[in-house]
Design goal:
The protein has 338 residues and is of the alpha/beta class. The chain is built from 14 helices and twelve strands. One of its GO terms (molecular function) is transcription cis-regulatory region binding.
Length: 338
C-alpha cells in the first residue's frame, strides 16, 4: 500500500462508525470510551492494519491551550458598556486555575468573520465563548457545524441547541414593572433592547406579563426598541413622549439606555422620579452615578462570565458533558430614580 493510501484516524473512524475523537481516545487509553466503541475501533484498526503515526497522533490529541471570547459588537460599544468588561473579568476568574490563554476576538463585519472562521478551521483554539448573540448571527451555526466546543452567554431563541447561560431576563423585567406598579405608576413605558436578540424579547415580554398581572393591558405603542446605547435611550424616550406625553414611568432594558433616557428627561424639563420614574437593568457602575441614582435590576454578570467558562472547560474535556442551559437569578436594587 502506497503512502497516499495509508489508513488514517479518519479511515479508522469511518470503518468503526465512530468520531475521530473516539479513535484518538482508544489510542490514548482514555477511560471515556464505551466497551462497544472500543471493540469497534480495535476491530477497525486490525482490519485496516492501521499503525498510529506518533506525529499525527500528537496533532489529533494536541490542545491549543487557548479559548476565544467572541464579541460581535463595535469597539465603541465594548468600551461604553460595563456589561462586557464584567463578562471578561468573570471569564478571567474562570480560567485562573487553568493554564489556558484567553483570546479576545471582535467580529464586526464579514471580513472579520471569514478571518475568524479560517482561524477556527486551523483549530487554533480549543473552544469558543460567544457573547451578545443576535438571532441571525451565522457564527453559532458555523461553530455547531465545526463541532467546536462552544458556550453562549445568552441564546438565539428559547430553542437554543448550543449550551448557554443567561440571566432571568423575564423575571427581572417583571420585578422592575411590579415595583413601578406598587409605586402607583399606571402609564409605564419600556425601552426594549434590539428585538433580534432574545434578551430584548425576554425583557419586553416581562414588561407585558407584569402589566397584565397588574390588571393593565399592555399597549405596544408604549414600547420602543433601542440598541443598548445611551443615544438609543435618548431617541427612544423622545419617541415615547411624543406618542404618550402623560407617561409616568419607564423601564429601560439596560442601565446605559436608562442613563440616556434620564438625561433626555431632564433636558425636556421632566422631574425624575416626581413626573417620571425610571428603572434600568444590569445594576452596573452607571446606576450609582446617574442623577438621581438609578433603580436597576441586578444581574450577576461576572458570575455569568465565570459560569460560561467553567461549562466550556468541561465541554472541552468531555464533549457533551456540559449542562445545556443555566439561568442565573436577578434582583431589584431600589434607588432614587423610582
Amino acid at each position: 500500500m502506497g503512502a497516499s493510501q495509508r489508513p488514517t484516524i479518519k479511515t479508522v473512524a469511518a470503518r468503526a462508525g465512530v468520531g475521530r475523537t473516539t479513535v484518538s481516545r482508544v489510542l490514548n487509553g482514555s477511560p471515556l470510551v464505551s466497551d462497544a466503541a472500543k471493540a469497534a475501533v480495535e476491530a477497525a484498526i486490525s482490519e485496516l492494519n492501521y499503525v498510529p503515526n506518533s506525529v499525527a497522533r500528537s496533532l489529533v490529541t494536541s490542545r491549543a491551550d487557548s479559548i476565544a471570547l467572541v464579541i460581535p459588537e463595535s469597539e465603541s460599544r465594548l468600551g461604553s458598556e460595563p456589561y462586557f468588561s464584567a463578562v471578561i473579568r468573570g471569564v478571567s476568574t474562570g480560567l485562573a486555575e487553568s493554564q489556558i490563554q484567553l483570546l479576545l476576538v471582535l467580529v464586526r463585519d464579514q471580513r472579520e468573520l471569514d478571518q475568524f472562521t479560517r482561524f477556527l478551521a486551523a483549530r487554533r483554539v480549543d473552544g469558543v465563548l460567544l457573547v451578545s448573540v443576535h438571532r441571525d448571527d451565522p457564527l453559532p451555526g458555523l461553530l455547531e457545524e465545526m463541532g467546536l466546543p462552544t458556550v453562549l452567554a445568552g441564546r438565539r431563541s428559547p430553542d437554543e441547541v448550543l449550551p448557554h447561560v443567561h440571566s432571568d431576563n423575564l423575571g427581572g423585567a417583571a420585578e422592575a414593572v411590579r415595583h413601578l406598579l406598587e409605586r402607583g405608576r399606571t402609564r409605564i413605558a419600556t425601552i426594549s433592547g434590539p428585538l433580534d436578540m432574545d434578551v430584548g424579547h425576554s425583557r419586553l415580554q416581562g414588561w407585558r406579563d407584569e402589566l397584565r398581572r397588574g390588571g393593565l393591558e399592555p399597549d405596544e405603542s408604549m414600547a420602543e426598541p433601542a440598541d443598548f446605547t445611551e443615544e438609543g435611550g435618548r431617541a427612544a424616550i423622545r419617541a415615547l413622549l411624543e406618542r404618550h406625553p402623560g407617561l409616568d414611568a419607564v423601564f429601560a432594558a439596560s442601565d446605559v439606555m436608562a442613563a440616556g433616557a434620564l438625561a433626555e428627561l431632564r433636558k425636556l424639563g421632566r422631574r425624575v422620579p416626581e413626573d417620571v420614574a425610571v428603572v434600568g437593568f444590569d445594576d452596573s457602575i452607571i446606576a450609582r452615578h446617574t442623577d438621581p441614582p438609578l433603580t436597576s435590576v441586578r444581574q450577576p454578570v461576572e458570575e455569568l462570565g465565570r459560569t460560561i467558562t467553567e461549562l466550556l472547560l468541561k465541554e472541552i474535556d468531555e464533549p457533551g458533558s456540559a449542562e445545556h442551559s443555566l439561568v442565573l437569578p436577578t434582583s431589584l436594587v431600589v434607588r432614587d430614580s423610582s
